[in-house]
Amino acid sequence: MSDYRTLGNITQLTTNDPVNRIRRRKTMYRNDVYDLVDGERDHQLKRHEKHEVPHQDEDHSVADWITYMEHHIGLAKLWVYHLDIDNALREVRKITALGVACMEYNETPPRESE
Fold first, then answer.
1. What backbone phi and psi angles, to 5 degrees, belong to 53?
2. How far apart are CA 80 and CA 72, in angstroms?
3. d(CA 113, CA 53)
């Protein structure tokens, strides 16, 4: 008998292993991931346009952006705790887009060649 049970694109351990109970089986192409992140950035910008007092993202420090990302990391952890991987990944999408925003408003040096 297998230790795994598959429901859709989620594989769940049927044993009481607390370390890695849920694994996703589906993978995505990098361009599709970039499209998701780009769409999330568009969504974030549209939300900021709706504020009566406009957000000035360019005024946020790197520390501010990291704080926003940490908040969403905490939410992602909470979703994982509740075994809700889809909502955890929604938070990962937000976190990644916040990292992009941080880099947009704070000139980021390229990776140096090794």
1. -100, 105
2. 12
3. 43
